[in-house]
Automatic annotation (TrEMBL):
It comes from Lentzea rhizosphaerae. The chain crosses the membrane at residues 159-177. It is found in: Cell envelope. Residues 25-120 form the CopC domain. Residues 131-154 are annotated as: Disordered. Residues 131-141 have a biased composition (Low complexity). This is Copper resistance protein CopC. Keywords: Copper, Membrane, Metal-binding, Signal, Transmembrane, Transmembrane helix.
Length: 182
């Protein structure tokens, strides 16, 4: 019986020693505009680059609000591999700090989120101080459906769980065979 417990402890130790460590969630690595940057004019698009493959979550992936709380229209958001890109209309931009709130779905299915700020230093020739025009431009609706190039999340059981299950079954089978021989 002592051999059995020694073998069981050794097998469980081996299973945990070779277990695959839990993978960390994707995290925001860079953005355009960059966090903390000061830019002369409102950006035409926002680009977020992550450490791992991401897709668009349900709801808004990117929202931008100005110092007065006004939200910018965001359209054409899409995710490809590790990057989420969206077209933005900076018409409501005012000079000052603007906040980008982002959400992304990590490859494991969990939704990650965060915020960062950038500052717009509008000049006299920028669009917010120019004379208003009579034309109205409609933006395309934001789609949250991931493009076909984005891989689906696996959501499967981690490999170490299967290793432990196989080891438990093997130990059980060895015990059963030994009992039948005795």
């Amino acid at each position: 019986m002592r051999r059995f417990f020694s073998a069981l402890v050794l097998a469980l130790f081996a299973a945990t020693a070779i277990a695959v460590p839990a993978q960390a969630h994707a995290e925001l690595k860079s953005s355009n505009p960059a966090s903390g940057a000061t830019i002369d004019a409102p950006p035409k698009k926002v680009e977020l680059t992550f450490s791992d493959v991401v897709s668009l979550p349900d709801g808004d992936a990117i929202t931008i609000s100005g110092p007065d709380g006004a939200k910018w229209p965001v359209s054409q958001a899409h995710a490809v591999d590790k990057t989420i890109t969206a077209v933005v209309d900076g018409a409501p931009a005012h000079a000052g700090a603007h906040t980008v709130a982002w959400r992304a779905q990590a490859d494991d299915g969990d939704v990650i989120s965060g915020t960062f700020t950038f500052t717009v230093a509008l000049t006299a020739t920028s669009s917010s101080t120019a004379a208003p025009t009579s034309s109205v431009t409609m933006s395309a609706p934001v789609t949250n459906a991931p493009p076909s190039t984005t891989p689906a999340s696996s959501g499967g059981v981690p490999a170490w769980v299967w290793i432990v299950v196989v080891l438990v079954v093997l130990v059980g089978a060895v015990l059963l065979v030994r009992r039948r021989k005795a």
